[in-house]
C-alpha cells in the first residue's frame, strides 16, 4: 500500500485527477460498486487530509455524510477496504475515531480503464505518475493459440469448465474484488501444471501479483488441480 500523502508542486492537480478518475469509474459502474465509489469520492472530498495522507472520521460522521444509518456506514467502510481503495491505519476505540488512508496503487489500477474517457492528456498524465514495476508481456501467439474470454452476462455463467468454475468461486467469495480485479481476466493457457492468466494492463497484473495472488490461487488450485501454479501476465 502506498500512502496517499500529496504535498508540494503538482499535488493539487494530482488530487483533482484522482477524484476525477474515481468519479468516472463510479459513473461507469453499476449497482453496489457505483454507490461505493461515489460515497468514497464524497468522503475524500469532505474529509481527506492530503498533506498527512489520511483522514480521521467516525461511523456516525460517515453515516451523516452519506445520509445512511451507522450500520450501513459500517458495511460500506468494510466494502471499501475489501475492494482495496481504503486502508484502515488506526482502529477506532472508545473516545477515538478510526484513521483511514487511500491506497493509490489500487485506485490507479482500478480506474486505469476509464482514463481515456476523460481525455488523452489525462490518461498520459495519470500513467506518468504511477508506472508499475515492469511485468512480463504476453508473448505473440501462434494462429492456433487459444485465449478464452469468459463473459458472465450470458449463458456461460453456467459453464462447467475449470476456468468458469474458478471465476464463479472468485465472484462468490468476494464480489467487490471480482468486479475490480478478476472480471476482466482471460485464460491464456493451462498446460504442464501452469495456468497462465492475462490481466488487462501492466498495472492490474502487478497489483494482482503483489496483493491478490493468494486469493486467486486458492480457487485456481481447487479447479485446475492442487499442484497447479498460476502465472500472471499483462496484455500487450
Automatic annotation (TrEMBL):
UniProt name for this protein: DnaA N-terminal domain-containing protein
Any Pfam family matching the protein: DnaA_N
InterPro entries membership: DnaA_N_dom (IPR024633), DnaA_N_sf (IPR038454)
Gene source species: Cereibacter azotoformans
Stretches assigned to the DnaA N-terminal domain: 162-218
